[in-house]
Amino acid sequence: MSFVVAIDGPGGSGKSTVARRVSELLGWPHLDTGAYYRAAALAVLRAGVDPDDPAAVAAEVGRHEYRQVDGRMLLDGEDVTREIRERHVTGVVSRIAAVPEVRRIMVDLQRRWVAENGGNAVVEGRDIGSVVFPDSPVKVHLTADPSTRAARRAAQMGIGPAEAEAELTARDRIDSTRDVAPLEVATGAEIVDTTHLGVDQVVSRVLDLVDQRRREISSAARDAPSS
Predict the structure, then answer these.
(1) Residue 224 contacts by C-beta under 8 Å, 6 or more apart in sequence?
(2) Under a CB-based contact definition with an 8 Å cutoff, are residues 122 and 19 in contact?
(3) Cα–Cα–Cα angle for 32, 35, 36, nearest 5°?
(4) Which CATH superfamily is domain 1-29+119-227 in?
(5) In terms of Cα–Cα distance, which of 66, 11, 4, 9 is closest to 29?
(6) Numbered ranges of CATH 3.40.50.300 in the chain
(7) Comparing C-alpha atoms, which of 194, 60, 80 is closest to residue 140?
(8) Which end of the chain has fewer CB within 10 Å, C or N?
(9) Chain segment 26-41, per-residue pLDDT in tens
């Protein structure tokens, strides 16, 4: 039986740092689904396709191969891990991710990745618990107040807090209002406000949830009538 730990949340909530730490402590592979959309955005930009033309975007995205290997994002076999974090990609990724056909392609790839990596994984994104793995036994939705998220993103990107907050606000609006798989709290998700929590505290809370659910699943298996 596979066991996916789904960690969702907006930018600056701490999900990438938490997901990586949880995966290390569990010894399970970590999947950053956002990197797939960033790689798709990079492919669109390189081709000179208008990010606001859904049909053209979908066609271009469908021409390429996307793979995540040992934490590196590959676009047609090229390691683009660093390039997809650059600001010109960040500026369009939400528009690319809002295209339904792009999401269909990426969700299929992400599900396949988990299956190919043994079924147990820590997966982070914006629609993991609601769309990609809705049956995940552990769903966590991280959040934080806007100023904290902006400060984290500013430090990460090397920009001013006001600029970071404006970018996050714009992305939140697009992600939360798109027609397909909007950013929302998945049914059954544990909401964790990371504003005043350290990384170790958040990680500990996630691991406690994992332990609890594994015990519950084990107990249910023992109590199930034999055929």
Answers:
(1) none
(2) yes
(3) 105
(4) P-loop containing nucleotide triphosphate hydrolases (3.40.50.300)
(5) 4
(6) 1-29+119-227, 35-117
(7) 194
(8) C
(9) 999 999 999 999 999 9
- What are 150-157's contacts with CB under 8 Å, separation 24+? 150/12, 151/12, 152/12, 152/14, 153/11, 153/12, 157/87, 157/90
Place of tokens 């402590």: 25
The answer to whether 157 touches 24, Cβ cutoff 8 Å, is no
In this structure, the number of other CB atoms found within 10 A of the CB of residue 189 comes to 21
Query: What's the one-letter identity of residue 109?
Result: L
Q: Residue 138: is it exposed, middle or buried by C-beta count within 10 angstroms (0-12/13-18/19+)?
A: buried
Q: What single-letter DSSP state applies at residue 119?
A: S
Q: Which residue has the tokens 């909530």?
A: 13
H-only helix segments in 48-160? 54-61, 87-90, 93-97, 100-116, 146-157
The domain 35-117 is placed in CATH, from the list 3.40.50.300, 3.80.10.10, 3.30.530.20, 1.10.1040.10, at 3.40.50.300
- Write out pLDDT tens, residues 180-200: 777 789 999 999 999 999 999
Determine whether 204 is exposed, middle or buried from the number of CB atoms within 10 Å of its CB (0-12, 13-18, 19+).
Answer: middle
Mean pLDDT of the chain: 92
Task: State the Cα–Cα distance between residues 71 and 132, nearest whole angstrom.
Answer: 19
